[in-house]
Amino acid sequence: MKLLFPGSFDPFTIGHADLVERALDLGCEVVIAVGINEEKKPLFSAEQRLEAIRNHYKGYSRVSVIEYKGLTVDAVRENGCDAILRGIRSVTDYDMERNMADINRTIDGVETVLLVSTPAVQHVSSSLVRELISFGRNADDLMIDTFKPYM
Known about the structure:
The structure is a single chain. By secondary structure, the chain is of the alpha/beta class. It has one domain (2-150): HUPs (Rossmann fold). It contains 6 helices and 5 strands; from the N terminus they run E-H-E-H-E-H-E-H-E-H-H. It has helices at 17-25, 46-56, 72-78, 91-108, 126-134, 139-147, and strands at 2-7, 29-35, 63-68, 83-88, 111-116. Strands 3-2-1-4-5 form a 5-stranded parallel β-sheet, sandwiched between helices. Strand 4, helix 4 and strand 5 form a beta-alpha-beta unit. The chain is globular, with a radius of gyration of 15 Å. 27% of the residues are buried.
């Protein structure tokens, strides 16, 4: 099964790594789709996000990293995927993701695979990083520090 994992991942956000690993353990191929929205001004450029995630997954034969604009369901079809991969980290996530999965299935005919995230995986939030940078912390150093355990 080929799964599309959508998101607008920042280079320092590694909370998705456990979900990708779990999908791989299930024998799936994973396409990590980095959402590009030119109206939003993310902390890191699309190129920086793509490069960091591609570097993280280099050597993984069943993982590819792409960028996409528009609807996730269109990206699923355009990349020959069977379903969308989504993660659940809390009860609130479960309700929201289940509802979105129902909508995607009903309106667009696209299935969703929901995997529960491993609680032990820590990730750095965008708001925390912005706060650290405002106190003079270098974003590139932070990205490298948080990615090291996963490289």
